[in-house]
User: What shape does this take?
Amino acid sequence: MNFSTKRMFENMFWLILFVLIIWQILYWLVGDIALRSPWTTFQFTAKFTATDQFAIHLNESIKAFSLALMIATFAGLSIGLLLGLKQFAREIFEPFLIAIYSVPKITLYPILLLVFGLGLSAKVAFGAIHGVIPIALFTLNAVRNVKPILLKSARVMGLSTLETAYKIIIPSALPEIFSGLRIGFSLTLIGTLLGEMFASQRGLGFLLMNAIGLHNVDIIVMLTFLLVGFAGLAGLILLVINQKIYSAN
Assistant: This one.
């Protein structure tokens, strides 16, 4: 473990400790009506996550998020590489991507429901549209910043577009592409959970929305704790990998 990675984990430790202290203080101020203490939450989490009910919702969310992330990653990388390599296409479609990215995705959800209906497909589509454009834009910019001499060398060597992308562009642009994948990961997770909250009968998002309706503070706090913990841990792992890629390049 190098110095920067060690320092990152130390900072994460102090951040977690700070959050737990603030959490406990807020519980003392608010009380049981809207919050649970960290220790009570840990105990309830250990008990509830062992139930079949939680396993069903967790498996549904994992399935939806995994499919959405695969679609967002494949489509985003493909669009970004294509537009990055073709200047004419980039000049036409890049403004459209930026414009679509600025549109609140929740406004598109009724259309997705009409197209896909209630169920897994709508959640996957809603998650994918959150992640695909950031990945595409980061990939586009990464390809655009590749040194021209490398692209000229590829043309001199007679490499095809796919060979140029695989052998030249992706290795050179990998750090910035991976940054886009980090952002896409987080946004895809948010989109999938939102899809489960508004139009689903299974999944962690549905479980959270149902708990809000019933004012079940235990489940609300537990799910918030689990989702924040998962997102934070995944983000930390991806950040460490990203730093290793940057240092290798």
Notes: DSSP finds ten helices and no strands in the chain. The chain has a mean pLDDT of 83.
